[in-house]
Amino acid sequence: MLSHAALNATLNGTSAVLLATGYAMIRRRRVLAHKTCMILATLSSFAFLVSYVLYHWKVGSVNFQGRGWIRPVYFTVLGTHTVLAALIVPLVLITLTRALREQFDRHKRIARWTLPLWLYVSVTGVAIYFLLYHLYPAPRAWN
Which own/partner pairs from 37-46 qualify as long-range (CB within 8 Å, at least 24 positions apart)? Predict the structure, then answer.
């Protein structure tokens, strides 16, 4: 069974794959496949957001254990991830709304910003998970 943190990383990774696939589909003019991927990416990201809030409400924050050169790298990635994660929510909603209203010129203009930022947030979310829980995990308490 996946831990809650692993579930969050899986949802982020799923979003990233769906975003990349959706982009590839629209480049090939496969509009229905693009639409499907982007809606699924939105649902995956929404599920992540709910899961993330519930997890951190229950657990609180998890301290990064890395030392040396990795520490400023981690906090730089975490900082940019956090700022862009807050920014991406309204961008996704605007981008999705424009597409669903068939305002494709306006959709395309904002999607050029939304896609790379959303992809960055999804990928860095997975990277943060691996750094925090696998490469530099907190010491386990002995029972």
Answer: 38/96, 38/99, 39/96, 41/14, 41/15, 41/118, 42/92, 42/96, 44/11, 44/14, 44/15, 44/18, 45/11, 45/12, 45/15, 45/92, 45/118, 45/122
Give me the domain span that covers residue 120. Answer: 4-135
* Structure token digits, residue 120: 């960055």
End-to-end CA distance of the chain: 21
> Domain count of the chain?
1
Full-model pTM: 0.93
> What digits encode the pLDDT tens for the residues 5-16?
999 999 999 999
